[in-house]
Description:
This protein is mainly beta. It starts with 20 loop residues before the first helix and ends in a 5-residue tail after the last strand.
Amino acid sequence: MPTIDRPLGGRPLHYRLGRDVSELIDEALLERTGRSARTLVKDGPLRVTLTALGAGGSIAQHQASGPITVHVLSGEILFRAGGDEWQLESGDLLSLDAGAEHSVSSPAGGVFLLPVALTPEG
């Protein structure tokens, strides 16, 4: 899905993630790279990203400067952090402290929402 001119902050933004999530995912990018991400909100310290992983897709170990939550919308993802591992499925929510190194993979594919509250340094 190409970049579109749309607001990322300011006045209220409304997304129907249960119904319209497929319209927000770049299927060609997902097919080519195993993942697709779209920033839905970028306002002050808040970032909200919709991420899709295809079957076998992954995101290498990294860290966020602020605390995050991971809310699985569909499918399943495997989330690893601090030597622990969680198999998350649709409806699950996981939170993680700022700066914690983590990685994500999905053997069968999954879509999740990733809100990040950036710290002043982030």
